[in-house]
Design a protein that fits this description.
CATH class: Mainly Beta
Radius of gyration: 20 Å
CATH topology: Porin
Strand content: over 45%
Structural class: mainly beta
Helix content: 10-25%
Number of helices: 4
Distance between the termini: 42 Å
CATH superfamily: Porin
Strand order of the largest sheet: 1-2-3-4-5-6-7-8-9-10-11-12-13-14-15-16
Shape: globular
Length: 362
């Protein structure tokens, strides 16, 4: 029996493994003090003042319930979980900028972004440090700006920021054209076999889609952005992926299409990275071309948004995932309530999952 992989990201429950011991309050406070000390030291060495620094963050809490996980059992699963407890610090000083971010949802600090950004010339920026791979548009959206509680399955993988995502990236903007090319450590965590990636994006209509998903806040005028991307992790013999996506919004309507093509060795890379278990090879991305289609509509009154997303994994299990959602915006994306229902069909076990999420930003 194969576990329902996408929904297990949303339903963080034990399946027989011993759970990690939560960090004590003193340990968490100590880590936050240490992080604050490091940030202050970095700011001083770069010549930043308090006027150049901005501090922000968000937390996301969800409740999830399912009668189908794990597959093949009679156990009903339900749980509350803190998805994110995230803080960001941005600093700007002349042509230079830095970003540091960490997540404390696990009870200890997990470093996410840690990069410096320098102006190379007009319209060209250089990023050095730890950052997201420039591949999918949805993977660049912050978690508190998601339309659904979870992003697309492909986006989950490309939101990773850890040692494998340390490197350098050149970003070029010329009018409606945006181009990013990066060299990062990749799965082997060394400079021997790099992860090379590139994303080319064009604003076809309007000024671009911005940094959120969905129709909330979309202008009356139409906007459309399309992109193509390439990724090759040299740690795998066939670790290449290509992608294409397009997003459109107008007034109260939003639509987004995402297609990714993975070569055969991506399954081996997923196992090596711990994304899947060696016993769950059918859940790997290798030799698949998953597709996702997302649509949403703001209801009159501008407080409620209804959305639907359909994903085809194109794997040997013939998995398809349908997610229905409704968002209630108390204060835009900074304070919102999300209600999602997901159902997966496959040639194995089908599964349903219900989730409620609360996002608060500061």
């Amino acid at each position: 029996m194969h576990l329902f992989l996408p929904l297990t990201f949303l339903l963080p429950l034990s399946t027989g493994k011993a759970s990690e011991t939560p960090a004590s309050k003193a340990e968490v406070e100590g880590e936050m003090v240490a992080l604050d000390t490091e940030v202050s030291a970095l700011a001083r060495t770069q010549g930043f003042t308090t006027d150049d620094l901005s501090f922000w963050g968000f937390t996301r809490v969800n409740y999830a319930a399912s009668g189908d996980l794990p597959a093949g059992t009679d156990i009903d699963y339900s749980a509350f979980a803190v998805d994110n407890a995230r803080i960001y610090l941005d600093g700007n000083h002349g042509p230079a900028a830095v970003r540091l971010s960490a997540d404390f949802a696990s009870g200890s600090a997990t470093l996410l972004d840690a990069f410096a950004r320098l102006v190379v010339t007009d319209g060209a920026l250089l990023h050095v440090g730890q950052f997201r791979t420039p591949f999918l548009a949805t993977a660049q959206v912050e978690a508190n700006r998601n339309l659904f509680i979870l992003p697309t399955r492909n986006s989950l993988f490309y939101r990773v920021r850890d040692e494998s995502r340390q490197g350098a990236m050149l970003s070029i903007e010329h009018g409606p054209l945006h181009w990013n090319v990066a060299a990062q450590n990749g799965f082997d965590l060394t400079l021997d076999d790099l992860l090379i990636s590139s994303r080319l994006e064009l604003d076809l209509v309007g000024e671009g889609m911005g940094d959120t998903e969905g129709a909330y806040g979309a202008p009356v005028e139409p906007r459309m952005t399309a992109g193509v991307a390439y990724s090759n992790d040299e740690a795998g013999d066939d670790g290449m992926a290509t992608a294409a996506d397009v997003a459109f919004s107008m007034a109260r309507f939003y639509a987004q299409l995402e297609v990714v093509d993975y070569e055969a060795d991506y399954t081996a890379l997923d196992v090596a990275a711990g994304h899947i278990l060696p016993t769950e090879l059918d859940a790997g991305r290798g030799d698949t071309t998953p597709i996702s289609l997302t649509c949403s509509h703001m209801l009159p009154g501008d407080d409620w948004e209804a959305g639907v997303r359909f994903e085809i994994f194109d794997d040997v299990l013939d998995r398809e995932l349908l997610t229905l959602g409704a968002n209630y915006y108390v204060s835009g994306h900074d304070a919102k309530l999300q209600v999602n229902f997901s159902t997966e069909s496959s040639n194995g076990d089908d599964a349903d999952l219900f989730g409620i999420g609360l996002t608060l930003s500061f």
